[in-house]
## 1
Amino acid sequence: MNNELKSYIAGFLDGDGSIHVRIKPNLTYKYGFQISPNIVFYQSMKESSYMRWIQKKLKVGYLRERKDGIIELTIGDRKSLLWLIDEITPYLKLKKSQAKLMKTILLTQKDVKTAKDFLQLCKKIDSFEKLNYSKKRKYNSLYVEKILKKEGLLTP
Amino acid sequence: MNNELKSYIAGFLDGDGSIHVRIKPNLTYKYGFQISPNIVFYQSMKESSYMRWIQKKLKVGYLRERKDGIIELTIGDRKSLLWLIDEITPYLKLKKSQAKLMKTILLTQKDVKTAKDFLQLCKKIDSFEKLNYSKKRKYNSLYVEKILKKEGLLTP
């Protein structure tokens, strides 16, 4: 992408997008939780051709039509996210901290060796709640800590 | 503004802004109606420092805090609008037609000499309803036509 396109995408994401990482209970994962990072662009379904244009430019992510008339372009895989973050972070104003934090999390995630490491990672993810003014999250590091202790994976 | 900033502003406006022209009843105006053009940027009040940053970069418009927790940056004067349209139109994707139409209206407006000219202008403004997927407007060219005829300003 050229700098003007990167800057445009950053503006669009700042205006009407989201950068977040969530913790999701998933028993097929080692510690019982999946780390789910997403960059999402939103728009009215009436503008689906525009969203396809964005997707074509980014060459990553998939489109999803919600039942409430919103179309979402979601990027969720590690490689695409790391690429996109590096491309647009210099141009982001509103969501620069979220982009940097997501990058830290994606990089830290690779080095998780123990339940303690995993819990540290979850603590980093907690910060998204404040950064994005989200409602209080059910699945946060406190919740993970309880489960890890209960399962005997973490010494109390 | 440099090209990257123009492109960023265009992306932000495409994502979370509005370009529109409205017809408002106003008896202090020659034909009984005011033409009200606006470019508006929206954001949560939590991001008011960001909105002040945008205003500082644009050097036009004024900020208004709404009661529903939204802060608006509104540009409404002819000179600022014409400047902003010329700066960002090449970078707009979603709202390029609205920007071009607003420019046409602002330029045509200066040449309105008769009630017939004014009605033609109002017909151009009607197009915003479709472009912006607005709800049906009460004050459209049909309404203006009725009033102008009633006032004897337009020969039936």
## 2
Amino acid sequence: MSSQSEAVTYDLYYWPEIQGRGEFVRLAFEEAGATYVDVARLPAATGGGVDAMLRLMRGDGSALTPFAPPFVKVGDLVIGQTANVLQFLAPRLGLVAPDETSRVHAHQLMLTVADLVAEVHDTHHPVASSLYYEDQKEEAVRSARIFLRERLPKYLGYFERLLGPNRELGSYVDLALFQLIAGLRYAFPRAMQRIQASLPGLVSLFDRVATRSRIAAYLASPRRIPFNEKGLFRHYPELDAG
Amino acid sequence: MSSQSEAVTYDLYYWPEIQGRGEFVRLAFEEAGATYVDVARLPAATGGGVDAMLRLMRGDGSALTPFAPPFVKVGDLVIGQTANVLQFLAPRLGLVAPDETSRVHAHQLMLTVADLVAEVHDTHHPVASSLYYEDQKEEAVRSARIFLRERLPKYLGYFERLLGPNRELGSYVDLALFQLIAGLRYAFPRAMQRIQASLPGLVSLFDRVATRSRIAAYLASPRRIPFNEKGLFRHYPELDAG
């Protein structure tokens, strides 16, 4: 997949201390070799920081402000919602075939990834995002057990069946599936050990994406924020039923 | 908004006994005066029924099968994910302005509606979709209370600020916001009575959409499935904290 990125600078706005949903966008920029600024990770003194992000979210009442990060700014255009951002960027970055069917189907899969990501988040925050994990831990244990037994195999089995003999989809969705596997292995190492035994296509895809030159360079760089317990994929051993 | 629907028949696949996520697609077809078949609501003897839907979801291993309903079939193309379906249909049905910025921003808002819809669902199923409501009722009461106090006002306040002086967005998102208000009033009548006092734009939008001729005819027809406790928006008085 060659880069077709134009001479454009993209501003990415996302929380600076987590991979989270922003990581799907970071991976697309990295794979394409695009020039992008991860604004909230820059010092406030140079126009960066979380405040710069929140200012754009408050907006001035005239333009469409995003409901939540991540969002990107391209010229005057501000675009929010992770899957929407990727759909907008992908043809510009050479990360999807240009015909409508390819774009519609890649987006459909990305939205399915996004649904799974939301369910992963809800395993550690089943009652409310605004409550501490410790205040919903009992519910989280119950929720994660059912998620790992029913939902995760259903989702991953679906993606496995789609991969086909090349074990790649040939779009930015490959990057998203890589990130998904990376996050799931971090959060649920015991359960994933068991589940991935029947997912040779996804495991192969993961290995292939991880060794692509730009992705490998990115993963080894300080630009890749380590997984942690503030992000989407959190490792709480009591949720990893194995 | 005039209909620009082509001489195409659209097949919609969705659960036949609920409004659910399929209702956002039904409303778009109805507003556009499009010719569509709600396949799973037809008798199995004439190629309808839930089995016809599940058959397409199993697929033959070659095409992209959808992960979940709703999905539509247009010619040979099968398209899943509610917001993706609407994004595909809207330019064809005259339900969005054709320029890229309008389409990207309408989709961004539709994805935000979809996020809210998922949170509404999780108020009655916080632990797991596969468990009965009765087996997670205590958690649901706790979850719904925080949802109605924090999340719902945040989402609806966001949409309210976007509506502007015309109190319409001028795209299929108006239909989605109408459906959202309808569902929320059904599920949480006491809470909505209080919350909507500060949402004159959304209330006005609701009234205007409800009286559009094609929408009014649809709502009065047997095609509009009544809200019920199998769908997304469920009325459980104990969750309606007021």
## 3
Amino acid sequence: MLAALRLVVAESELVAIVNTGDDLELHGLSISPDLDTITYTLAGAVNPATGWGLVGETFSALDGFSRYGMATWFALGDRDLATHLFRTARLREGATLSQVTAEIATAWALQTRLLPMSDSPVRTRVRLSSGEEIDFQEYFVKLHHDVAVSGVRFDGAEQAAPAPGVLEALEEAEVIVVAPSNPIVSIAPILAVPGIKEALVARRDRVVAVSGIIGGHALKGPADRLLVELGSEPSALGVARRLESVVGAFVIDEVDAALKEPIAELGLRTAVCDTIMRDESVSAKLARTVLSIGAGNGDA
Amino acid sequence: MLAALRLVVAESELVAIVNTGDDLELHGLSISPDLDTITYTLAGAVNPATGWGLVGETFSALDGFSRYGMATWFALGDRDLATHLFRTARLREGATLSQVTAEIATAWALQTRLLPMSDSPVRTRVRLSSGEEIDFQEYFVKLHHDVAVSGVRFDGAEQAAPAPGVLEALEEAEVIVVAPSNPIVSIAPILAVPGIKEALVARRDRVVAVSGIIGGHALKGPADRLLVELGSEPSALGVARRLESVVGAFVIDEVDAALKEPIAELGLRTAVCDTIMRDESVSAKLARTVLSIGAGNGDA
């Protein structure tokens, strides 16, 4: 979504508030997958085949991990390791995650400001139907999200504060875009940090979400399955219902045009357009639609 | 030297007591270059062109380090990083360096026992003629040992104890071999750990050293230069004088045959043979000579 937005807005005018509930500690390293994926993507360095990690990456260290019986289910690339080593060393020196994130963004010459949702650790914990509770990355990567889930909680969220700049950005933004991400495990952890949800509610008229569910399915990831497991309809309407308290506008895909009315009945301005960002033309059009309806313009 | 000895002795009968004064912390990693070089060498995995690091290694992470302004003068390979990450994580979990060293040796299927000289940190510090004091690896790698040295000390040595098994190995060994390593920065730190020097003195008759200085020069490294700078003759005799209190026998190269007499006058049994281990035949012959004279046999 950020890549789409910067087709129509100067990169330096964008601020990204990023989920850190996915963060993990592995092999002694502090890993922030969502921050890194956004950094690499905006830098044009992401592996386009996977959507994560670096293009042309090598995985020699991972071979070494096997030798020592270290976990290899989280595929750390060699150049990517430098990012984690840098972050880990800086955090140990006393830097905040915000500071390190800014330093990494600078190292990649990003114009867009990246803000972790909080400098305090928040960890998304997934309760399985078996009763076991596991870390998000275990659920997502190790188990390929191929298990039944009975609940999700955000460990540490209650004690966390928004990172410096987060509330200010939400107060000052012309439009606040909730990306077409998983509402349960990617959007909800951000909203769980005290103050952020309230900041969105306060500016609800300028908040616009894009549905990550298209035709009843997530483009990738387990959002559709999780919605069903946690009692929501696996549709753009189900997503809208989860977000209605914080968003004033909602953008859905053309295949979901029939859901425009039910979503409008929730009190949301709605726009229908192609939301599958397969090329720059579609992406730019979506970005313009999002910004237009988010800025308070009527249905489209 | 270990590789030579195992040509004539079962690997499982060898115990290596290894210098850890060269250890360093870099990028938050606990790095033990001497232990690793020995591990990789005995595993047949060392890069033969450099004598350190892994053969066929990649250096992608190092590219990443540059991006973040991290030091790159110590070339950490990608597979090698796995070793450092494993060691660092295990040490943080509370394992001792001995334990981690054994685990790494097992991972590489080594038959030879590797013992760090101590589980406590000892750091070789090099005082330059400028008055500045720096870490060993800064001297050795970063500055390519191309600076004048006025002194060397082993920070932490006085408080250190020999690692478990070190004194027992020295008590039980049929022969104790002091490798043809740098007497000032590789042998001396081991002897600086309280108890180790005394253990050698107690078994002096079974201790044999091989001169690392041949024809007045070190085969590699700064041993010759350091000997001069710190007041010794840069010769096998100079090395023998530095070690005479702990060794009963001394092996020198054929080019240094003229030094046999002066060394014998120090009270050392002496053997002269080819000490440049260019192939297995020469290496095996040297190993047999070392073990024979070390075991108490007369001059050769």
